[in-house]
Write a structure and sequence with these properties.
With 192 residues, the chain is of the alpha/beta class. It contains 5 helices and 10 strands; from the N terminus they run ββααβαββαβαββββ. The chain is globular, with a radius of gyration of 16 Å.
Amino acid sequence: MRKLSYLIATSIDGFIGDVDGEAEFFTKYVDEEFLAYGFAEMPEALPTFARRHFGIDDRPNRRYDTVLMGRGTYEVGLPQGLTSPYAHLKQYVVSRSIEKAPEPEVEVIAGDVAAKVRELKQQDGLDIWLCGGADLAGQLVDEIDELVIKTYPCFLGSGMPLAKAGFGIREFALEAVRSFGSGVVITTYGRE
């Protein structure tokens, strides 16, 4: 069965962006070592235009063949004309305000997203990448099978949390830790 994997960037204190969700400042910690790891281990986590830019567009998807993102995450690229940001993946946008995506390969989920995720998990294929954001992660917290948390060496003090979920102890087991010279640490947890 496929897993829902929440792959997300965060500060040391658990914020994925400023109060509006802007997170461009994390890119200052991306160095050659980190890029090489990403290209080798999860090339599908780069938007299609970035894959082309770095010359890795021909690399096969290793972990994910489907991406699930909230409206806010999807809309970040719209001003730049990125209407199909992950064309190399099956793309879903969760939104009650977008009736139809501007591209036919982007499907809008307006109903019960947890039910849709359970349906997707039953299908054949690679895992499902929960790309963001905090609201969607909060809605799907009980469906998340894996957390892949890229922690950047900065402390924000406030901002958008990792997930907007009600209090509840949800246990995960540590599966892997990978650190980089830039101070970035990728921690992988699996559902217990």
